[in-house]
Design a protein that fits this description.
Order of helices and strands: HEEEEHEHHEEHEEHE
Structural class: alpha+beta
Number of strands: 10
Largest sheet: 10 strands, mixed
Distance between the termini: 74 Å
Number of helices: 6
C-alpha cells in the first residue's frame, strides 16, 4: 500500500508539473504574440494615410486617418482645434517602452514626419537624444472626450532626462505628471491638420509606406 501511495503521489506531481509548464508556456507565448502585434508605422489607403495612436483617457490604441495633401487646414477655428501630442523617446529607452507608433531607429516608418521629429528632439535636448531617437507615439483625446475634434494641433513632448523616458506614457494623466515634475517639456509646432479615427481592420487593409532613408 505504501509503495502504491508513493507511486500515485509521484505520478500526480509529475502531471501537475507538466500542466504548470504548459500554462507558463502559453502565457509567455501570449505575451510575445501581443508584443509582436503592436501596430507601428504609417500606411496608405487610397488618398489617405493611417497611423496608430493612443486615446489619452484610456491608453487604448486608436487609428488616425489623414487625407494626403497640405497639412494645415486653411479655415480652422481656434476653438475647434485640439492638441495631438507626439511623445518622443530616446534609444536608451528602447527596452523599457518597446514598440512605438512610429519607429525612427532602423528605418523611419513614418516617413512624412518622423525624420523631422527626430531632428527636433536631438537639437533641443541633445543630452537625452544625442545617441539616437527610438521613436514616438501619438496621444490624443478619443471619441467622447472634451477635446475630440477634427482639426489637431501638433505638440511635441520631449523628455528632460533619460530616466524619465523609461516610462511609457499613453494617457493624459501620465503626461501631466511628467510635465508637472519637470521630466518633460512641450514644443509647440505650427502644424494643424485634419484627421478622423478608423478601425484597426482598416489600418490592417492599408499598405505600409516604405521607410525613410537614413
Amino acid at each position: 500500500m505504501g509503495k502504491l501511495l508513493r507511486k500515485s503521489l509521484a505520478t500526480t506531481q509529475s502531471k501537475l508539473g507538466f500542466i504548470l509548464l504548459i500554462v507558463i508556456g502559453t502565457l509567455l507565448t501570449n505575451v510575445t504574440v501581443a508584443s509582436a502585434q503592436l501596430p507601428s508605422g504609417e500606411r496608405q489607403l487610397g488618398q489617405t494615410i493611417i497611423e496608430p495612436g493612443y486615446d489619452d483617457r484610456t491608453g487604448r490604441l486608436i487609428y488616425i486617418m489623414t487625407p494626403i495633401g497640405p497639412p494645415n487646414p486653411t479655415h480652422a477655428n481656434a476653438h475647434a482645434v485640439s492638441p495631438l501630442f507626439l511623445i518622443v523617446y530616446p534609444n536608451s529607452a528602447a527596452n523599457a517602452v518597446g514598440t512605438m507608433n512610429c519607429a525612427h531607429e532602423g528605418g523611419d516608418n513614418c516617413p512624412d514626419h518622423g525624420p523631422g521629429i527626430a531632428d527636433l528632439a536631438q537639437s533641443v535636448v541633445p543630452s537625452v537624444y544625442g545617441d539616437g531617437v527610438w521613436g514616438h507615439d501619438h496621444i490624443m483625446d478619443g471619441p467622447g472626450g472634451s477635446d475630440f475634434n477634427v482639426a489637431w494641433h501638433v505638440v511635441v513632448v520631449l523628455f528632460t532626462n533619460a530616466a524619465a523616458a523609461n516610462t511609457h506614457i499613453t494617457t493624459e494623466d501620465q503626461l501631466d505628471a511628467a510635465l508637472d515634475a519637470g521630466d518633460a517639456i512641450t514644443v509647440e509646432t505650427e502644424i494643424v491638420f485634419h484627421c478622423n479615427l478608423v478601425s484597426g481592420a482598416t489600418y490592417g487593409r492599408a499598405t505600409p509606406l516604405p521607410p525613410a532613408a537614413q
